[in-house]
């Protein structure tokens, strides 16, 4: 409902425009010999971090209703972050559909980039929740952003290393894209499990 207040169409809003336009423009700042769809993926994922921590999903935790719903914590956590994940999927489809024509990339790699972009957003969301569990309420906004960036960087770094190994050692774009998607899915699953009990502690969500 919060996204419907500010969206132009479905989940398409100003943040969608920012990520898509920035990602496409970034392509023209890269040397032709190094430009690839992976540049768009990583730059857009970087932009997505700052948009996600300012997203609308934390509003669910600021209201008492979610704590009164007679469902498991994992179910409530899944559904209170679902809109954010759907929005990232929606944005990723648009961004990498455009990238498909810009780079004339393989369709399988484009599909894996959409999945990876969506999972990057999920990593940031659940890292935000995990940061709340680890650090509680932090009054300094700059310190809070730094801690979330540290936790998120720790979560995504292995996937980037795996991607580099497959891309440069085996010269395989498909395996590189697959390794990022596989790691991100593993990281999201692990972070979700670690964050599952956040709704048991109302004081750390405020």
Per-chain topology:
Elements: H1 2-6, H2 14-27, H3 37-52, H4 58-61, H5 65-68, H6 73-103, H7 107-135, H8 141-169, H9 173-195
Helix pairs in contact: 2-3, 2-6, 3-6, 3-7, 6-7, 7-8, 7-9, 8-9
Q: Output the helix-strand order.
A: HHHHHHHHH
End-to-end separation in angstroms reads 21 Å
CA radius of gyration is: 17 Å
Q: Number of DSSP helices?
A: 9
Record field, number of beta strands: 0
Low-confidence stretches: none
Biggest beta sheet attributes: none
β-strand percent reads under 5%
Which structural class fits the helix and strand makeup?
A: mainly alpha
The helical percent reads: over 70%
Please tell me the overall pLDDT: 80
- Structural domain tally: 1
What is the overall silhouette? globular
Structure in words:
The chain is mainly alpha-helical. It has one domain. Helix 3 runs antiparallel to helix 6, helix 7 packs antiparallel against helix 8 and helix 7 packs parallel to helix 9. The longest helix has 31 residues.
Structure in a nutshell:
The chain has helices at about 1-5, 15-25, 35-50, 60, 65-70, 75-105, 105-135, 140-170, 175-195. It is an all-alpha fold.
Keywords:
single chain, 206 residues, 9 helices
